[in-house]
Amino acid sequence: MTYNEWLKKIDDELKPDKSFDIIKRELKIGGRDAVLYYIDGFIKDEVYEKILEFLYKQTPEDIADIPNMLEFAKAKMPYVEADELKTVKEAVTAVLSGPSVLLINGISGALAVDTRTYPMRSPDEPQKDKSLRGSRDGFVETLVMNTALIRRRIRDKRLRMEYMQIGNGTKLDIAISYLEGAADGRVLDILRKRLKEIDINGISMTQQALSEKLQKNAFFNPFPKFKFTERPDYASACIFDGRIVLVMDNSPAVMILPISLSDFFRETDDYYFLPIVASYTRILRMLVSVANVIITPLYLLLAVKAAAVPSWLTVLMPEKTGEIPLFFQFLILEFVVDGLRLASVNTPDALSNSLGIIGGLLLSEFAVSAGWFIAEAILLMAFVTIAGFSLPNYEMGYAMKFERLFLLILTQIFGVWGFAGGIIALITGMLCVKTLSGRNYLYPLVPFSKKGFLELFIRYPMK
Question: How many other CB atoms are found less than 10 A from the CB of residue 94?
Answer without folding.
Answer: 22
